[in-house]
Write a structure and sequence with these properties.
Elements lengths: L1 H7 L7 H7 L5 H10 L7 H15 L4 H29 L8 H10 L12 H25 L8 H21 L8 E2 L6 E2 L1 H12 L6 H11 L7
Antiparallel strand pairs: 1-2
């Protein structure tokens, strides 16, 4: 589910209302600070637009774990409902070895040679259908039982927060023409980090309410911007 979340975070584009709400997350002072950091004119409207859209899209799932739990609950309920309906269909359809006037007449009418349809439904078709239905019910029931074991992964928040970092790297490259990886430096002991991109990402992630500790945030950013990573 986490992969699906990351893949779909960018679509569809934010609405005017979402962008307006995003404006409340970042101040004019923060924008000016970022524009000065990246040596951009102020105000740089295209840059601000991209940042606001990023914040708006991220805010849709600012608490992805809660959203995933809600979605998982809905999927479980849907599966239970489908299983109930399938069981009811099994009980209603004529079965072998049972004599029931109403159900037998139902089946005879379905198999009536005088009925004009795209193709004639024969006895062997009905038997194949019943067999496939039984198999489908078992598969659906098993899938429903497996869903009860699914849990929202504890690292889901971190997975979701990787997306804005990748998008910020794209924005940084587009606005400055530089590789963001060149703008994350460390001291010899690699206990402290600095750089334009790191400051940019730190500023914006703080604005959207990023809860991760600074050291862990820096580690995540560095790992995402490794040469083997694509963004």
């Amino acid at each position: 589910m986490a992969d699906i979340l990351v893949a779909t975070l960018g679509t569809p584009m934010p609405t005017a209302g979402e962008v307006q709400a995003a404006r409340k997350c970042i101040t004019e002072a923060s924008f000016k600070k970022l524009e000065k950091l990246l040596t951009l004119k102020s105000p740089d409207e295209p840059f601000r637009k991209e940042v606001l859209e990023l914040i708006a899209i991220y805010r849709r799932r600012s608490d992805p774990a809660a959203c995933e739990r809600k979605d998982l609950k809905a999927i479980r309920a849907y599966f239970r409902e489908i299983v109930q309906h399938l069981h009811a269909l099994q009980k209603q359809l004529p079965g072998s070895g049972k004599h029931d006037l109403v159900r037998s007449n139902f089946l005879l009418r379905i198999l009536d040679r005088r009925l004009t349809t795209r193709r004639r439904f024969e006895g062997r078709d009905y038997l194949s259908f019943r067999s496939a239905l039984d198999d489908f019910v078992e598969i659906t029931k098993t899938a429903s039982e497996e869903l009860t074991k699914d849990r929202v992964p504890p690292h889901l928040q971190l997975v979701a927060e990787k997306w804005p970092v990748r998008r910020l790297a794209e924005i940084f490259r587009q606005r400055t023409g530089d590789d963001p990886r060149k703008h994350i430096q460390s001291n010899y002991a690699k206990t402290e980090y600095r750089g334009k991109f790191l400051k940019m990402a730190d500023e914006i992630l703080t604005c959207v309410g990023h809860q991760q500790e600074h050291a862990n945030r820096v580690r995540m950013i560095r790992e995402l911007l490794q040469p083997s990573r694509q963004f």
